[in-house]
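Batch manifest, entry 17 of 40.
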Amino acid sequence: MYEKILVGTDGSATAAQAVRKAIELARISDAALDIVTVRGTDQSEESAKQLLEPATAEARDAGLQAVNGLVRGGDPSEALVSAAEQRGSDLLVVGNKGMTGTKRFLLGSVPDKISHHAPCAVLIVQTS
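Output type: structure tokens
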């Protein structure tokens, strides 16, 4: 089904649902999973890495062997699309709400931009 799945997270509840779905699909497909967070200009590399820890731990607890946590900078949608291109992902998973916080985008704009520019299939998880 899939060989390389990339999921974006900002540590929010919406992103956590997207991570759970990506883990499920990676387990079913025996796929590698890249979990990516995008660091804001006012955020340290270390705090960005801390956002990845719960998601990577959950993936490993689910039995996934090939799990990578990656920190990128810049525009969230561009960074996720670029990471998917560079990593050779065949599925990009995101929540249906945009990133929150300083220098982030309006609700829903990140998944919208990704859906138009991703180099692979996109799964936008239907969260409340």
